Amino acid sequence: MTAQRRTVRVVRGGPVLVEGPIDIELPDGTRVESDRFMVAICACGRSKNYPLCDTSHRKRRRR
């Protein structure tokens, strides 16, 4: 079986975008599956749906 190349895009101040579908394995061994064609992975740690992004990074107040 050959490995399929995926595109990963890092958005400054936002999520990491990965071409899906994907399986995500968290440090505690929990697995999260997504069948979407593009998956946003939380990079800020604020998401209530972690590891998937829920756009919580947009709520950050600037000083």
From TrEMBL:
Keywords, ordered alphabetically: 2Fe-2S, Iron, Iron-sulfur, Metal-binding
InterPro entries: FeS-contain_CDGSH-typ, MitoNEET_CISD
Superkingdom of the source species: Bacteria
Iron-binding zinc finger CDGSH type domain span: 19-63
UniProt name for this protein: CDGSH iron-sulfur domain-containing protein
Organism name: Gordonia tangerina
